[in-house]
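Allow me, if you will, to draw on your knowledge of protein folds for a short while. A protein sequence and the structure tokens that stand for its backbone fold form the material at issue. I would ask you to consider whether the tokens describe a fold that such a sequence might reasonably adopt. Thank you for your consideration; the sequence and its tokens are set out here:
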Amino acid sequence: ELLGVNLYELIKKNNFQGFSLALIRRFAHALLRCLQMLHREKIIHCDLKPENILLSQRGPGNIKVVDFGSSCYEQQRVYTYIQSRFYRSPEVILGHPYSMAIDMWSLGCILAELYTGYPLFPGESEVEQIACIMEVLGTPPNDFVQSASRRKLFFDSKGNPRNITNSKGKKRKPDSVEMSAALKTNDPLFLDFIQRCLAWDPAKRMTPDEGLQHQWILEGNFNKLRSRTKPT
């Protein structure tokens, strides 16, 4: 099948202006259906990012997920160094065992970027990546930090985040940016959808099945659209 540009190229072609929530909802629905299929087979993609999502020629909102080079079965995890940094889940950064929930984290980051035109958590390093996440989500639960094998890289002995200044001289303070400000939207359903993708605790993160039943997705009436386009 001939595939079109990837989502990063699409964002770039649009001068990093971001897209309408209606179009993003179509992408989200297609990605959730893809993740639903992977999750049923207990497969983790491990590198979901805009560059690995290509537009299909079948019409607007139709996409294909590519590059399964890092993917694995949930019970046969191969690598510890996975996911591109901007889309890397906190459990991977901190050295926790990871699950299919890491793909939902990446999905939340991707949808946010499609809306604003820029990565939600643009860390220059893993230490700044966690700082970017904490800036919006606040500090992680204490037990999540204490049970992490790589915690000493990011937190001191008392569990406080290590201070970091990036190359532009910027320091990021935990819980200093509201999600609505980071996303530049007050749409309550979109905000709720993203926040459910970005729960610190992977066990509390939304699953693809739950995502497809979320009110923000249901407002797209995709089931009606699908039944309308089925051949008679």
The beta strands are 3-6, 43-44, 53-56, 63-65, 72-73. The mean pLDDT is 92.
